[in-house]
Amino acid sequence: MAKPFSRERLTFRLDILAQEAIRANDDIFQARVGLKVHEVRVLRIIGQNPGITFVELSHQARMERSLTSRIIQRLIKQELVRRENDEADARRFRLFTTQQGDAKREVAKGLSDALEEVLLAPLAVSEAHQLDALLARLADWIHSEEYEQRLEAFENDSDPGQG
Q1: What is the largest CA-CA distance in the chain?
Q2: pLDDT tens digits, residue range 1-11?
Q3: Structure pTM?
């Protein structure tokens, strides 16, 4: 399949695009919400999943455990999140948003929506919908059994240039 874009790899381009958008939005989120983009992500996930454990949160946020831990501590200190020991296992704790945390989430949601419009401004509405659909399709694909099987077959192939 011929590449429809420049010499850079797709995963590299997606990663750089995400990093640049986050970096560009971080100061705006900090000024208007009092939180950075990754802190808002963690707060949003906790709010959507009351009682989530640290391990589940770290997995869903797709962030390193140490970064996730530091963010949780900041959110607890700001009284946006509360932590409760798990009744079934004292070694685990569960996370919940506070009323203040929920209020911040609402402000952040509106800001996120507005900034996403700015990001997508060069695309027609139909193109934005198409991009969303294509990203969803790729996300489904990389979580599929067939994708895993193809990767496994590739990993077991002694000549990666074949196939």
Answers
A1: 56
A2: 555 556 788 89
A3: 0.82
